[in-house]
Amino acid sequence: MADHLARGLTDAGWDIELSHDGEDGFRRACEHPFDVLVVDRMLPHLDGLALVGRLRTRQVQTPVLFLTAMGSVADRVAGLEAGGDDYLVKPFAFAELNARVNALARRRGASRERTLLTSGDLALDRLAREVRRGGTEIELLPLEFKLLEYLMLNAGRAVTRSMLLEQVWGFHFDPRTNIVETHISRLRAKLDQPGQASLITTVRGAGYVVGGH
């Protein structure tokens, strides 16, 4: 069955990794960023429910489709409560399996878009807490990361000093310091290398903007 599904999904355009037991599947799912996992309930060494439960404990959020002969309401509930995203009972039509895998992959893609902010060659991963420019990782302090994150969430729009003080520092008043200007200067020093265009632009009388200028 696994070999048959692997051939069918490969023909449908997927890049497949096949695992025949739960322990091996768990290890692979932890090591590689798969788009979707198709998991049988009755796996040797580590059953499907335990596999998915352990993945969720490890914060692996890859969408999971349970594919199993165990089709009672209680079985379906157990699968979803263990961390599964969908549940398909054997026997099944391959076209339905492929459609469900596609739907889970689209959901995964939408989630990635919300967590990855980009502007030109600058990318900020909100989950991994990483910033890269042109593929090169840039080390930021937590407050610098928060400042850049807010600017990129508002990419193309001018963000005022008051907005930054409230959203980044939590000040609901102006402390009359140059704290914003100092951190913007530090961000520019880290983001902009010689020969690169500045990513953060000062808009006179309005504030700061990333992108769209």
Could you describe the 3D structure shown?
The chain is an alpha/beta fold. 45% of the residues lie in helices and 16% in strands. The protein has two domains: 2-113, Rossmann fold (3-Layer(aba) Sandwich); 120-210, Arc Repressor Mutant, subunit A, CATH 1.10.10. The protein has eight helices and nine strands. A four-stranded antiparallel beta sheet has the order 4-5-6-7. Strands 1-2-3 form a three-stranded parallel beta sheet, with helices on both faces. The chain has a two-stranded antiparallel ribbon with strand order 8-9. A hairpin with a 3-residue loop joins β8 and β9 (207-210). The model has no long low-confidence stretch (mean pLDDT 89).
What key attributes describe this structure?
213 residues, alpha/beta, 45% helix, 4-stranded antiparallel β-sheet, Rossmann fold
What's the quick description here?
The chain has 213 residues and is α/β, with parallel strands linked by helices. It is built from 8 helices and 9 strands. It folds into 2 domains: 2-113, Rossmann fold, CATH 3.40.50.2300; 120-210, Winged helix-like DNA-binding domain superfamily/Winged helix DNA-binding domain (Arc Repressor Mutant, subunit A, Orthogonal Bundle), CATH 1.10.10.
